[in-house]
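Repro:
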Amino acid sequence: MSRTFSGTSSLLTNLMAFGASEVSGKATRLLVVVAISRTLSAENVGYAAAALAVGEVLKSLTENGIGQRIIAAHKDNLEAICHSAHRLFWGYCVGLTLIQMALGLGLHFAGQTTVGALVGLMAIEYLFMPAGLVQVALAMREDRLKRVAIISAAQVSGANLIAVALAFTWASPLVLILPRVLTAPIWLVAVRHLRPWQRNSKAPLAPLPPFLTYGLPVTGIELVKALRLHADKIVVGALLGPKALGIYFLAFNAGLSLATSFCAALSIVLFPHLCQEADQHAALRRTVKLSLACILPFVLLQCLFAPIYVPMLLGAKWAHIAPTVSVLCLAALPLTIWTAVAASLRVSGRPKVEFIVTLILTIALVISAIIAAPYGLGTMATAYVITTTTILLAAALPHLLKPSPQELRKV
């Protein structure tokens, strides 16, 4: 019992730390939304939203399971795994920089000059990542999650505050992109100071096949997850134009910021927590109950008071998106449940199951967005919530209700 309580307490502490980090990021992100809603046209917001959607889809490829291999490594193999991971991180990030810059150039020649320039600029951020990713994984392995959370919060909040300052002095879609590049060096310096590590050239290299066997499904999952989060925005931009996309972007940020923040924090802290649990199934159930207890009151309040806070924060001209925001808030609950189940699947070596579910959800969301788009953004938001809830609960509940091996032995 004391071990269970200690594990739950540790999870809650780390979840609160990363939750606070994500909330601080989203709080300052809300300031950005307020600033751009009052200074930029919906069309300019749409251009930036399109670039961010493309950039986030490509950035998901950096979530490739390499860091999780470091976290879960046996101490005898740790140095070799870090050595190989360091090389892989550099290969991934340099490759992504070139791919994204080429994509930006292609968009420029295709007539999307503004979006192409923004996409190309965002690629510079990748060049700062590989020199600090091994250090982040080692810090998380050593349970320094609160410090990692503080660094993450400082970078995200700093970028958002720069964006706010730029928005009131320079009405350009660039204000949503440039701060990400400017704050990347701050993150790098901070994580290298948090957990110093230097590559030992004499250390052996760990075999690559285990990285690929584990990492390819994880990369696929993260790519599909990014498509799940942003493909509907691409559909809106393609079918309804940049102005409609700008409105949709603001509605999503006002409605789903809390959910995405909480799920991001949960996914970060839950993997190392479950790795240390003897009965992972019981720990998963406790986590789901705890997570829902944490987020449910906020979701209900956000849903009920959207008609008040949306025009208050964004301005009276945006009051018409309040019902859309209220609907989108409800997606937080199935997303929270599935985030916990997905972490359990990764710990048990079954990331392919998560990949299949996420792929099905992504395809369903794209189809629902295409069907609902002609009927307006409110209908699209309702279709998003219904589709997400149906598929994620259908995938998560059998896993949660299945008895654990320990429970079967008791029978």
